[in-house]
Amino acid sequence: MTDQRADSPVQNDRRPWSGGGRDELADEVRRLINLTVTSAAPPDVLGEAATTLRALADRLEGHVPGPDPSPTGRFAEEGLSTDGAGGLAGAMPFDVVIGRCNPLAPPLTIEFEPPNAVAHAVFTAPYEGAPGCVHGAVLAGAFDIVLTAANVLGGSAGPTRTLSIRYRRPTLIDTPSRFEAWVTSIEGREVRSSGRLLQGGKVCVEAEGHFVNLDRPLIDSMHRRGASAGAGGAAAADGTAGAAGADGAGTDGDDGAGTDGDAGADGDGELPPSGVGR
What are the φ and ψ backbone dihedral angles of 70, each rounded to 5 degrees? Predict the structure, then answer.
């Protein structure tokens, strides 16, 4: 049974919630991930740390709810918000790209500068691919959410159908990165967006996304149902199998180390219509 407190924002006794100490825990785990990659501590110190963490993990594991036929949702009950970028992040506190409570999420912050969505990040060692460069898959995941933010700003949010990435030059770790994204067209339920990543004013990566615009009540329902939304391909409002999407999995790029002017690895492979990307 989940450990609860009277002042914790818990919707039910099985659903994880943000706040109540979870944000702080995620911050420390995020710090620990970085140190696991960068620390040059001797073996005895590493072994001691592993023992300490094993005991802590055992303690937390005791508060994981047992098996249940109903999936556990990890989205805010109110769903996506168009009030601002903070509402987008707040609706998805456990998202693997933008989730404040997910220590795997990159250090990405999103802002709305109409008509663009803008994101800032300094990717550190845990997100490294080629030496000194951000892994291409990490950048693809970041673009998926930044393009989605542009769609939210345009009132046309929905799951990803395809995501194409063009790596123009290396994206360096420990260097400020600026993402910019905007909606390029809306035709019925079909939404297309574009974006780019800049470091030092130079374009490192370009992206294009194809999304499916879903009605707001359906998106909110998907968030409440969490994992069950993609299982039956129920996302499509027009009765089809649903929009394919895997949060950036449609790219096949290398580690983002393409040279300037070279395509690097265009990832324009379309995913099969098997579920919902978000």
Answer: -90, 130
